[in-house]
Predict the 3D structure of the following.
Amino acid sequence: MGRSATVVSPLVIALFVVLLVACSGTVEGSPGVVGVGEPIYGRPVSEHTRAELAVAAAARGIAPCGLLDEDLVGSFGQVTAFGLVGDLSTCHAELVPPRGTPANPVWVEVTVGEREPTERTGAGTATDGIEVRPAVGALPGTCTLYFSLPTVPGPQVGVAARWGHVSYLDGAGGTGDSAAGDDCAEARTVLGSVTDRLRSPARTGSDIPLAQQDPCRVVEKMSERGIETFAPGSRPYECLLTLRGGTDASVQLALSPEPPRIGGPEAVELDGKPFTFFRDALSCHYYFYPGAVFDTNLPSSPVGERDKRSNRLTASVAASAPSCGDAETLVLASAEMFDY
């Protein structure tokens, strides 16, 4: 394969490593060998993996921006950005509260599909089948409330339903923007709306093509490399794979900031397509950006807030493996497999 390269910025590499660590995970209780039964993506799977895939698919069927009420968030201040971010399972709203400034915005986020709460939580309460647990030890001006997703119909034995969370993040560090000095007031209000929408039969999935797809579908393109096992990761847009010989690998779908033209990860060309690449101490990481850009900045925002680069996101797929050859194979298969 022909490759052309540019120099990698150590700072950008560090940022990419942080993102990978944050998104990676292990599948507790996942099978060590491929099971038997009806094939999925051309591979026989165990009943446990089949259940894991069904639960992750159900989470992908819940559009986080369909749960976050933009008008409700607008009651907290002027909304300057709204839309999907990150690994496609998070919807965020950026706003300027009445006593705030654009330099210190507030963020309200709804995330769906986590395997379990990622923070220490307090005692939970359950209403109509939805359990709510508050995160404990939050920084001033922030509040996160976790909620369980509806149980997936069918015999999902040994596989728990996934979780979501609502977060309120005060960019000013808790200077009193939250109502009545209660850091969780807005989060509780948003959570009430979210749980109402979760119970509604009118929920719809995302209209972004990449958000409608299962990253594990790349297995269909990997027959020549050999897949021993595959299962969803800690978020529903991540697939963890075991390649022939026991090598761990992963594929992640996301919306990412556009890569910088100068000082970013190494630019490479594989089979005539542009990719970015870097290697850390453990793995090779390849990224494919097909070009579709989603701007979450709102036209109604103040002039200085309409063109934030951080709110201009592009569909992307990341493939990681200890072997650069395996990572290349995965990212090339992903580039051909998914709709962007």
Q: What stands out?
A: The helical segments are 10-23, 47-60, 64-67, 70-74, 185-198, 324-337. Residues 1-34 have pLDDT under 50 and may be disordered.
